[in-house]
């Protein structure tokens, strides 16, 4: 039986999450799914220029796991670019250190996992949640769509 996947820490969430080659229609194109933690690995290593060890520490994973994630991300991006596929950024096993949320009904305090938990409490399902720092929304990406 394989080990369970460890949740990776992610600090960056893109504004744009879908990229299509110019001149192609979304309904007629294959896509590659790039996980959020794969994008984070690319950002840390290739844009921020951190060492593999520093990247692994920031994401709270081993160096080997980081290497596996970045290899997967680079392969997916290369396939999309060479085969003219769309890139869809979503999903994965990640958490963020930016914000902890608190359910105002049951008192549960939890780290958000991006879209899933910022709208409702994972414990009781209540939508009466707020940033645990005392503000209703502490970051642009915490903001609820109303």
From TrEMBL:
Pfam families: DUF134. InterPro entries: RNA_pol_sigma_r3/r4-like, UPF0251, WH-like_DNA-bd_sf. Belongs to the UPF0251 family. This is UPF0251 protein GCM10008906_05540. It comes from Clostridium oceanicum.
């Amino acid at each position: 039986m394989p080990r369970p996947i460890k949740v990776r820490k992610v600090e960056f969430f893109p504004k744009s999450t879908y990229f299509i080659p110019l001149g192609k229609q979304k309904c007629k194109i294959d896509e590659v799914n790039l996980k959020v933690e794969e994008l984070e690995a690319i950002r840390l290593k290739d844009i921020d220029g951190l060492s593999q060890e520093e990247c692994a520490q920031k994401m709270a994973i081993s160096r080997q796991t980081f290497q596996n994630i970045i290899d997967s991300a680079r392969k997916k991006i290369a396939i999309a670019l060479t085969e003219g596929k769309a890139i869809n950024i979503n999903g994965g096993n990640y958490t963020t250190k930016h914000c902890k949320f608190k359910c105002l009904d049951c008192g549960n305090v939890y780290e958000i996992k991006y879209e899933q938990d910022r709208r409702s409490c994972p414990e009781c399902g209540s939508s009466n949640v707020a940033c645990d720092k005392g503000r209703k929304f502490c970051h642009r990406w915490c903001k609820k769509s109303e």
